[in-house]
Amino acid sequence: MSGDLFSYALAAALATALLVAAFTDLRRREIDNGLNAAIALAAPLWWLAMGFGWSDIGFQVTLAAATFAITCVLFAVRQMGGGDVKLLTALALWFPPVSFAQVIVLTAVIGGGASVAMATFNMKRVPGETLRDALAVSVALAWVGGAGSVLLSLVTHRPFVGRAAETIAAVLPRGWMIGIIAILVVAIFTLGLAHIMRRQKSRLPIPYGIAIAAAGLWVLGEQTLLAARLGPLPG
Q: Where are the domains of the chain?
């Protein structure tokens, strides 16, 4: 019983740290190194509470190292901040592969949707580009709506393609017409997103810290609720 309480206490501490990370990223556009270090250094306590063996620990460390290497590339091309790299790497020490994959997917969906929405509000209006602006806003709404649909599907564990989408697909033309429609949709989205990026008033930081924290909180919450119903927290 005391072991279960210890694991729940660690989960609550991680949740609190993620909330703090989201708050500081929203307020100052940075995540404190001390907070990321605390999350990483507390991971061995989590391994102990979960009863990890040496092979399990080695796998988590390898997952964290791979995450750090990949996110460093994103940092180098200015697609991710240094604090985001450290936070995601620290979380890789806590979550098993399947759960960590959920964190990555949720982060990409939340961060991508938020980035497009923020970039749309940050657009500089130029006279004579009303139609292009309208196209860009329409594309942004469709992108954010699609991200929201994917997010809803992920968090509710329901198929992304529901009956309505299947009905629409049933009435679409077949063969080469589907290819033409797909190319047209891609072209429209490309033109719309390119216009949004070209008309930015200033460079916007991508809110991946908030997205990482939100994704981590959701997956951690799912694990905790599942454990409350079935037994110990999954390791």
A: 1-99+205-235, 123-201
